[in-house]
């Protein structure tokens, strides 16, 4: 095992810098953030240009760290994690890395939270490595099956076009964020700049599955075919106004995952944890820590 030694959380403010850690998960060096104590909650972010763990879940970490030992990962290919070539299915690769990561940290099992691409990875983890999954939370998850949303969706077209034409720009990033969220007033210049800068990092553009290089787009499995094999107690969370993954995906998962409940928010897009920070944290705590 090779991992950085965490600093006691009680003496250090919870920031991206103070919580930053690395661990060798098999052959992949994974960057993650750690805060809090208690039951382990592993948070897996979504894909798309400029995505990384703290960017997706940073606003939630202080509140969740009051109840859990929170681990927020950068997917392989994103953020500060290694950017390996992925052979075989993308989601199975991620699932194996996270199973190896938990083993390296000597964690037998954890609650798993996955959003968008991270949701498909979380489902694959529950399917192929069920022994490491206590409870499962899926937010705007990929890997399901849309019942009536046209494919590719409006949001998927925006994502796919980000590096096309004249290439990435701050205007394109703002358009993407406005598409992803219901209330555009929460999109600050700082947020646009942060995501834009992450999207043009040379290693991201050449090494991430959602970067510019088409050769880096590994196959994505049809996870929906096997979701009936998920035995973990599961919470599915969606925004009604999600223009990337329509809420009909949530209804499909409701019908296929054996032990499941669904929570839908109106006036909410894909990024539920950011758009409804306090409500989402309370929902998560209530589901994972029932009194």
UniProtKB/TrEMBL annotation:
InterPro entries: AB_hydrolase_1, AB_hydrolase_fold. One of its GO terms (molecular function) is hydrolase activity. Gene3D superfamilies: alpha/beta hydrolase (3.40.50.1820). Coiled coil: none annotated. Keywords: Hydrolase. Residues 39-275 form the AB hydrolase-1 domain. This is 4,5-9,10-diseco-3-hydroxy-5,9,17-trioxoandrosta-1 (10),2-diene-4-oate hydrolase. It comes from Terrabacter aerolatus. The gene is mhpC_2.
């Amino acid at each position: 095992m090779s991992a950085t030694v965490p600093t006691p959380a009680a003496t250090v403010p919870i920031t991206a810098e103070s919580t930053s850690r690395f661990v060798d998960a098999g052959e992949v060096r994974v960057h993650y953030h750690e805060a809090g104590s208690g039951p382990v909650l592993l948070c897996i972010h979504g894909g798309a240009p400029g995505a990384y763990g703290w960017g997706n879940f940073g606003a939630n970490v202080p509140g969740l760290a009051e109840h859990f030992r929170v681990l927020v990962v950068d997917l392989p290919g994103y953020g500060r994690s290694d950017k390996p070539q992925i052979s075989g299915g993308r989601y199975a690769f991620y699932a194996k890395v996270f199973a190896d990561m938990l083993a390296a940290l000597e964690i037998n099992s954890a609650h798993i939270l996955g959003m968008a691409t991270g949701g498909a990875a979380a489902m694959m983890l529950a399917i192929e490595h069920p022994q490491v999954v206590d409870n499962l939370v899926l937010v705007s998850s990929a890997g399901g099956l849309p019942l009536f949303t046209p494919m590719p969706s409006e949001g998927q077209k925006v994502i796919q076009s980000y590096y096309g034409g004249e290439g990435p720009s701050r205007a394109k990033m703002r358009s993407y964020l406005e598409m992803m969220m219901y209330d555009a007033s929460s999109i600050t210049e700082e947020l646009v700049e942060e995501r834009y800068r992450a999207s043009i990092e040379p290693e991201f553009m050449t090494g991430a599955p959602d970067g510019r290089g088409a050769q880096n787009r590994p196959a994505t499995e049809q996870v929906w075919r096997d979701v009936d094999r998920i035995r973990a107690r599961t919470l599915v969370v969606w925004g009604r106004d999600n223009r990337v993954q329509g809420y009909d995906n949530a209804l499909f998962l409701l019908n296929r995952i054996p032990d499941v409940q669904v929570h839908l928010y109106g006036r909410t897009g894909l990024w539920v944890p950011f758009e409804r920070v306090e409500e989402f944290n309370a929902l998560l705590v209530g589901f994972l820590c029932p009194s």
